[in-house]
Amino acid sequence: MSKVMVVTSGKGGVGKTTSSASLGAALAQAGQNVVVVDFDVGLRNLDLVMGAERRVVFDLVNVVQGDAKLPQALIRDKRVETLYLLPASQTRDKDALTEEGVGRVIGELRERFDWIVCDSPAGIEKGALLAMRFADLAVVVTNPEVSSVRDSDRIIGMLDSKTQRAEDGGRLEKHLLLTRYDAARAARGEMMKVDDILEILAIPLLGIVSESPDVLSASNVGSPVTLHNPTSAAGRAYIDAARRLLGENIVVDTPPERQSLMRRLFGRKAAVA
Amino acid sequence: MADLLDPRQSRLADMPEGLELPHVTLRGRTFMALVVTPAFPMATWFAAFDQQMRGAAGFFVDRPIVANLAETLEAGGPEAVFIVLEGLEARELRLIGVEGVDPALLAGTRWERMPKTLHGRAQTLEAWAETSPVAAGGERSPAPVTSSNAPSLLIDRPVRSGQSVLFEDGDVTIIGPVSSGAEVIAGGSIHIYGSLRGRAIAGLRTGAAARIFCRRLEAELVGVDRLYRTAEHWGEALHGRPVQVMSDRGALRLTALD
């Protein structure tokens, strides 16, 4: 049975696209048939993060408007053969998408794939609403800071009211993916703590991805971190998150918020130096 | 006012200007519109108003304002009405209506097309509120809805940021948190079995008899009847504690329940 999963956040720059690519790749590495769909029409990025930017011919808008067939627009990943990308258009804007067109494309994708990962644009407008519209479950990407948490809260409210599943009286499954987490800064009180975020958002935790240069370098070479550096902390966090999505019961590894030995011995100055 | 408040709960008492300036009263007409009633002397009233706007800018953003100018007209004549309207406009408030003045007065001005009387249930409520006694604990004239069949609203999920719960007919009970950026507005009392992090405004219909209860106070703003307070007006002492909010002889009173 196929699952449509929206990766959303409200706020921009928290790691939606990185997380879409990494979770999509991790699911595909686990043997699932996966397509990652870029809904950020006008600001397409997913093709870059997945290293497919030089292979884009047709895009989501072409398929929604009927100018191209779905197989023409799908790009198969060169590293994992069960991973596909449906890119966004860079030259159009979000008004080029219609609800019925998106619904038809999602319906076609459901026939071919186990997982349809929808990478939502930032904001709460049409693009974000269409990305979540047909979702069965949602991954809410949040950074440990108050503005991101409040925006995520807003998005959760919209997931509970503006999706087709919610309108049909169902409850959408929602998971929290905490990204750019820095245990040392959380311990110093410069970031929100995991428990506080969970208390506010009140949805189950899918995983914690620590702030790491591995994520940035993977994006820059056009490879999801789960492929580029699967043994890195970030890579393992995404792989574990994907396994949880597949129903495995793995305890979420919370980076320790206690002070490091160096800090305990020498205080802040030593740790900074 | 200050003597009614526990000094721990209010920093208003420490502000010298807080004692000098009249408290600007705002009445929730619906969850959307606020009624402002400018009073003489105008300079003082606007100074108080500006101070409140600074203290609770978010409260006024995008919120339609209705100006009740009856008192202005009575005390200052027609010129004063225009000065007040210009003053409100200069503050970039969304003035959507004027009441308490003869429509003919505004003819030929740019406020000519502004609604002069706002019809509907809201006005009936308003009229009722005007005639009912204000003294706390005093007997009220019968409300349109009797208490025996007063309806209530139960919400058993979190009220998320950006969501607004408006229930003019009675009490609202929420099982779960009210997030930062969310608001709950009730005709009667509000009961929150969870953290209150957003806004809660009670007593749209029952006035000063309404109360707000929450299991954990982290609110941005609470209001009962015509009074409201933003978070900076109550001290750290109440933060995170179970609290009730009530209107006590014309002042808003917050007390811990534990």
What does this structure look like?
The complex is a heterodimer of chains A (273) and B (258). With 273 residues, chain A is α/β, with parallel strands linked by helices. Chain A contains 14 helices and 8 strands. Chain A has an 8-stranded mixed beta sheet, with helices on both faces. In chain A, helix 1 (16-29) crosses helix 13 (233-245). The model of chain A is unreliable at 267-273 (pLDDT under 50). By secondary structure, chain B is of the alpha/beta class. Chain B is 23% helix and 28% strand. Chain B contains 6 helices and 15 strands. Chain B is elongated, with a radius of gyration of 18 Å. In chain B, 37% of the residues are buried. Chains A and B meet through helix 7 of A and loops of B.
Shape of chain A: globular
Sheet with most strands: strand arrangement of chain B: 5-7-9-11-14-15
Report the major sheet of chain B: 6 strands, mixed
Mean pLDDT of chain A: 91
SSE sequence of chain A, one letter per element:
EHEHHHEEHEHEHHEHHEHHHH
List low-confidence stretches of chain A. 267-273
SSE series of chain B? HEEHHEHEHHEEEEEEEEEEE
Annotation, overall tally of beta strands of chain A = 8
Strand order of the largest sheet of chain A: 3-4-2-5-1-6-7-8
Oligomeric assembly: heterodimer
Q: Main interface pair? A: A-B, 13 and 14 residues
DSSP strand tally of chain B: 15
What ranges of chain B have pLDDT less than 50 throughout 5 or more consecutive residues?
Answer: 1-25, 27-31, 119-148
The dominant shape of chain B is elongated
- Computed structural class of chain B: alpha/beta
Q: Indicate the proportion of strand residues of chain A.
A: 15-25%
Strand content of chain B: 25-35%
Q: Please report the number of helical segments of chain B.
A: 6
Question: Helix count of chain A, per DSSP?
Answer: 14
